[in-house]
Design brief:
Elements: H1 3-13, H2 19-26, H3 31-40, H4 53-64, H5 69-76, H6 80-87, H7 104-116, E1 117-120, E2 129-134, H8 137-147, E3 154-156, E4 162-167, H9 169-177, H10 200-211, E5 212-219, E6 222-231, H11 233-247, E7 254-264, E8 271-281, H12 284-295, H13 303-312
Antiparallel strand pairs: 1-2, 2-4, 3-4, 5-6, 6-8, 7-8
Helix pairs in contact: 2-3, 4-5, 5-6, 7-10, 10-12
Length: 316
C-alpha cells in the first residue's frame, strides 16, 4: 500500500476504527503515525468517534444480556465513553419491565422473590438492587436465564449459598408497588392484589420453591407426604386465605408460630429474630392436592422438589 492509498484508507475509516487498528491495516509502525497523518490532512478529532452499525448491534446485545458498560467496553475493546454513548440512546433493558405486566413466569419469579429475595433502595454506595438468594446454584442460574440476564451473574456469597444481584431502578420501583418492599423480613406482607386467580398457582409455586418444604414419610409401604409454607404472620394468613378461597377442597391447613426464631435474611445473609409462622398440610389430600394445583402447567420450578412431588403424586 503506497502513501496515497494509506491516506485514503485512513481518511475513509478513521471514524470507525481505533488508531492502532488503522496503523496495522495500512502497515504503519504506531498509532502516533496515524494521528500525525490525520493532522496533516487537517483532521484533529480522535479516531473511532463513530461506531459501525455491526458494533452497535454487539453493544446492544451484550447490554441487554446484563453486561455492564465497563464489561461491554472490555469485551469489544472499545472506550467506555463510546459504549456509554450508544447505550444511552436506549438505556432500558427488556427484563427491567418483566413485572409491569404479570405473566405466569413473572408471577413465579415474584413469588420466589417474596420468599428468598430482597430489594434495596439507592444509597451512597450502590444503586437500587434486586437480590435472589439460594443454596442451589443450578436453580439460581435457571432463574437468571428466565429473567433474561447472564447466568454468570450468579455468585457464591461466601456463606454456603449463592446470590443473583440485578441493579435496576425500574425493576425495584415496580416491585415496591407490588408490595415487595425493602426489609420485608419485618414488613406485614400480603399476596399482591395484582396476582389474579389464574396467576396465583405460579406465584405460590415460586414461594414454595423458596420458603416451602415437602417431606415424605413411609410406613408399612405407604407414603405420607406433608407440605409446609413458612413466612410472617400477615403473609401466611394472606396465603391461606387465597388457597382456601380458590381450592378449599384440597384440605384445611394447620397453622403454628415459633416465637423468637432466628432466620437468615436474603438482603445480606445476616440473622434476624422474628416470629416464624407456618401453614402445615399434613394429610395426603391436602398436601398432594395443593402440589397438583401449583405444578399444573408449570414452566419453571426447583427440580429437587418437583421430582419429590412426582414420586407421591399418585397417592390420591
Amino acid at each position: 500500500m503506497n502513501f496515497k492509498e494509506q491516506n485514503e484508507y485512513i481518511l475513509n475509516n478513521y471514524r470507525y476504527k481505533k488508531a492502532s487498528e488503522l496503523a496495522m491495516a495500512v502497515g504503519l509502525k504506531s498509532k502516533q503515525s496515524v494521528l500525525n497523518r490525520l493532522k496533516k490532512m487537517g483532521i484533529h478529532s480522535k479516531p473511532c468517534t463513530v461506531l459501525r452499525p455491526e458494533i452497535c448491534k454487539d453493544i446492544r446485545k451484550l447490554w441487554e444480556n446484563g453486561f455492564s458498560c465497563n464489561e461491554v467496553a472490555g469485551v469489544l475493546g472499545l472506550g467506555r465513553p463510546l459504549v456509554a454513548q450508544e447505550i444511552n440512546k436506549n438505556p432500558v433493558r427488556e427484563y427491567e419491565y418483566m413485572f409491569h405486566t404479570l405473566t405466569p413466569l413473572s408471577s413465579y419469579i415474584l413469588g420466589f422473590l417474596y420468599a428468598d429475595g430482597s430489594v434495596s433502595e439507592r444509597d451512597e454506595t450502590r444503586k437500587k438492587q434486586v437480590r435472589f438468594c439460594q443454596s442451589n446454584e443450578p436453580y439460581l442460574k435457571k432463574v437468571a436465564r428466565a429473567i433474561g440476564v447472564r447466568e454468570d451473574r450468579v455468585r457464591y456469597s461466601g456463606r454456603g449459598g449463592y446470590v443473583l444481584s440485578i441493579s435496576s431502578d425500574i425493576m425495584v420501583d415496580r416491585l415496591i408497588e407490588l408490595g415487595c418492599v425493602p426489609n420485608k423480613t419485618y414488613a406485614d406482607l400480603k399476596v399482591p392484589e395484582e396476582i389474579t386467580d389464574g396467576l396465583f398457582p405460579h406465584f405460590l409455586r415460586g414461594y414454595f420453591d423458596g420458603d416451602g418444604s415437602l417431606s415424605v414419610k413411609t410406613d408399612r409401604g405407604l407414603l405420607f407426604p406433608s407440605v409446609i409454607l413458612y413466612g410472617g404472620k400477615s403473609f401466611t394468613i394472606s396465603l391461606l386465605n387465597r388457597i382456601n378461597t380458590l381450592w378449599g377442597y384440597v384440605g384445611k391447613a394447620g397453622i403454628s408460630c415459633k416465637k423468637g426464631r432466628e432466620v437468615s435474611t436474603p438482603a445480606g445473609g445476616s440473622k434476624a429474630t422474628i416470629d416464624l409462622w407456618s401453614a402445615y398440610y399434613g394429610k395426603k389430600r391436602g398436601a398432594v392436592g395443593l402440589l397438583k394445583k401449583i405444578y399444573s402447567n408449570a414452566g419453571i420450578y426447583l427440580d429437587r422438589k418437583y421430582q419429590r412431588f412426582l414420586k407421591i403424586s399418585h397417592v390420591i
